[in-house]
What we know:
Layout: H1 2-8, E1 16-18, H2 22-31, E2 37-39, H3 44-48, H4 61-69, H5 75-80, H6 82-88, H7 91-101
Parallel strand pairs: 1-2
Helix pairs in contact: 6-7
Amino acid sequence: MRRRVRLATKGLTCSAGLAPNFMLAKIASDRNKPDGHCIVPPDVLTFLHPLPVRKIPGIGRVTEKMLHALHIRTVKDLYQERAVVRYLFKPATASFLLRASLGCSSEESKDDDDDPNNDAEDIGRKGISRERTFSSGRSFPEV
């Protein structure tokens, strides 16, 4: 895939992440930039738990500071302090954080295999992201 992108775009590179869900794939694709790839192992927690909480898509600067105030710095800390998280955060935020600490994307449903309306044809790309890196030394208007 990376080779095809480079050929089709005449030299642009891309990074890729292969994982069971979108969130983990996004984290994995960021792991070996630029022009690299990362495959998340079957035991996703060994990949996920050592990471800083800020690596989870959706955890920004403010949430990171709140978690650090609770001595939660890694995804493993987030999982281990799940009772504190459930108590101190709003239900939607706590649910997102706890699901993320287990490697679950927020858009996943409980079990699509039992859904009689689930067609295999509907399964496809779940999302796409794009980043652009500008070289330093150029002013904002030049970019």
